[in-house]
Design goal:
heterodimer; A: alpha/beta; 14 helices; B: alpha/beta; 4-stranded antiparallel β-sheet; 14 strands; globular
């Protein structure tokens, strides 16, 4: 049917307004979507505040594996209260020092140099240990390299993950359940016999949910920041872009799940089937740095992974638009693929 | 006159059963056409095939002499047996939403007045009573000022007053020249509203015509009814054919005067006497051997 563009716009707008009204009139759901993430983040902040790690964490930059002989010249690394972590990338290791995740860094190819963070008390302490066990004249050969950076607490690291998890649930269940309910109680059947096309209907649903999730995510972000004053080094605009694309990708994933069924039970199962792998493998709660390679590959297939990684890079490393382009492109590609599949599978009716 | 809608040899087979088995009919513009039959006769399947919701297994559906095109969806108004509207919206918002989906549409003020929704506009659409909800659904079916209106069991489950109210509405849109296709399993509804009707049973048409001509064609008698208790002694040797329904006896009488005279001669208590015309219910029973509401 050749429909004027303006008519399409009117239809999409009318459905968009309707859906958005339905959402904000559901006061319970609205309140819950705001309070739950703030509660989670507060609980995390309380759980991880107070005492720090007992160990000193010393990083060793090894440009090549055979350089491991550094132990012989550095007895500090053999001490039981020191945890040694090897890096093959100096930049990454320095980043850890900057965020207080490493107390001191040595480099196998640059004997006599060490890096500490000037604001880290533990860094100063482990420096004293390093120098204290050397003879006075030897100590003179060591040169201190300073790295500066605000301490990144676990809560700073986990915030992008928790916010990402929150929008993931909101995007998946928010869109999935609504469409399945519409199909179950006949709203879709009623719309099917109007001039509304599936594309117009789905566009309105996606836009409404995108708006709702962007607004709630922003409110939750502000709410968490009031409590925790977490690290945010990058640009808010870039962060918003990452959030919008990430939410969009997860909404389109939910559209596939909701494309045919009229059973809320089945939809619930399928939505959880999509949500839980992401919850565990998208680095929401813990880093996959030490995970097997295949798990990292699997993790890259989830939109949430890219959203959380990009948000984390922006927030705690100050990454710019260019630095997160890869993640943005992957999320955009996923959205297009999901959308095409969803449009192909979509049926108004169950049969 | 060219029929506004015509179906030819319509058939729908599901995995286990043939729901519609070779149904054909024509609907003249401006008339009310009824599909009368018991639950499970294939009425809803038929109407949903015409509406474009279900693909027929075979057969043809012509709107104004041509296969249905996108124009059909714009010119048809549809009310389903059971659909719901969006939650959390007022009646006014629901009506407004559907109004904005159409380019050619009816005047909202008049529609609201016609369907008696004026006092309900601010009420949540999901909190309406059965009759109010059907009036809202009826309004949605009329919102695009349709040429042809499809009503699937419009009064099922309504109280008597709401039913009359809806009949009145249907009469009024007939008065506006709209064509109505209606399914029902109430014979009184079909008798009152329909100009033409087909009686369907088990997916096939078993009779077709106006209610009056159908009754005239199949019956030349009246029913004289009495309590079974009063008539007990004569059950087995009465000159006219009779049936017992629950605790009543119905005598098929070709002449009420003759029957009454005979009853008086036998000194039968006439306090429970009632005389009635045959109905579509009787016709259905006669044609199928089973009742409409089983």
């Amino acid at each position: 049917m050749n429909k004027p563009f303006a008519t399409r716009g009117v239809i999409i707008w009318a459905l968009f307004v309707t859906r958005t009204k339905e959402f904000y009139r559901d006061r319970g759901a609205l309140l819950w979507s705001l309070l739950l993430p703030i509660c989670i983040v507060t609980a995390i902040a309380i759980a991880f505040s107070g005492k720090g790690q007992e160990l000193f964490r010393v990083g060793v930059y090894l440009p090549a594996p055979e350089a491991a002989a550094i132990e012989a010249q550095q007895p500090l690394l053999a001490k039981p209260y020191v945890q040694r972590i090897d890096y093959d990338n100096l930049g990454q290791a320095l980043e850890r020092v900057r965020h207080h995740q490493l107390d001191l860094l040595l480099a196998a190819d640059q004997p006599g140099k060490y890096w500490i963070n000037e604001t880290s008390v533990k860094g100063k302490a482990v420096e004293a240990l390093l120098l204290g066990q050397l003879a006075a004249d030897d100590a003179g050969h060591w040169s201190r390299q300073l790295v500066s950076g605000r301490q990144v607490r676990y809560v700073d690291w986990v915030i992008p993950g928790v916010l990402g998890m929150n929008v993931m649930f909101g995007a998946l269940f928010g869109i999935g359940f609504v469409i399945v309910r519409y199909r179950k109680n006949g709203v879709l059947k009623r719309l099917q016999v109007t001039p509304v096309t599936p594309l117009e209907f789905l566009t309105a649903q996606v836009l409404s949910r995108l708006l709702v999730m962007m607004v709630t995510a922003t409110l939750v972000y502000i709410g968490c920041d009031l409590f925790l004053n977490f690290v945010m080094l990058g640009s808010y605009l870039t962060l918003l872009l990452v959030a919008a694309l990430g939410i969009f990708a997860m909404i389109t994933l939910a559209l596939i799940i909701a494309s045919r069924t009229a059973s809320e039970e089945l939809a619930n199962g399928l939505l959880n089937f999509a949500a839980f792998p992401m919850l565990l493998l998208s680095e929401v709660w813990f880093s996959l740095d030490n995970a097997p390679a295949w798990l990292k590959v699997v993790s890259q297939c989830f939109p949430l992974t890219h959203m959380v990684q990009a948000a984390r890079d922006i927030m705690i490393e100050g990454a710019g638009l260019v630095d997160v382009t890869y993640h943005l492109l992957v999320m955009a590609l996923m959205s297009v693929v999901f959308l095409v599949i969803a449009a192909y599978l979509f049926r108004w009716n169950e049969r | 006159m060219q029929p506004i809608l015509e179906v030819r040899h319509l058939r729908k087979e599901f995995a286990q059963l043939t729901a519609v088995n070779d149904i054909s009919f024509q609907i003249q513009p401006g008339t009310c056409f009824g599909l009368l039959g018991p639950n499970g006769a294939g009425k809803t399947t038929t109407i949903e095939m015409i509406e474009g919701l279900t693909e027929p297994t075979s057969g043809e559906i012509l709107y104004q002499g041509k296969p249905r095109d996108p124009r059909f969806r714009l010119e048809a108004g549809i009310q389903f047996q059971s659909t719901s509207v969006m939650e959390k919206l007022s009646v006014g918002e629901v009506v407004g939403l559907f109004h904005s989906l159409y380019h050619k549409r009816t005047d909202l003020q008049q529609l609201v007045e016609l369907c008696g929704l004026g006092s309900l506009m601010k009420q949540r659409a999901t909190r309406l009573s059965g009759g109010q909800k059907q009036r809202l659904m009826f309004a949605l079916a009329l919102i695009n000022d349709p040429q042809i209106v499809f009503l699937d069991e419009p009064t099922t489950g309504l109280d008597p007053q709401s039913r009359r109210n809806l009949w009145d509405l249907i009469e009024r849109i007939k008065g506006q020249g709209k064509t109505v296709l209606l399914t029902t399993h109430y014979m009184d509804e079909a008798e009152i509203l329909c100009d033409t009707l087909v009686i369907v049973d088990r997916g096939a048409i078993i009779a077709e015509g106006s209610p009056r001509s159908l009754l005239k064609q199949h019956f030349d008698h009246f029913y004289v009814c009495l309590d079974r208790e009063d008539f007990k002694a004569h059950l087995n040797h009465w000159p006219e054919p009779l049936v017992t329904v629950n605790d009543r006896v119905e005598i098929q009488s070709h002449s009420v005067e003759t029957t009454l005279r005979q009853l008086q001669q036998h000194n039968i208590n006439l306090q429970s006497l009632r005389v009635r015309n045959p109905t579509l219910e009787d016709l259905f029973l006669k044609l199928t051997g089973h009742s409409l509401r089983e």
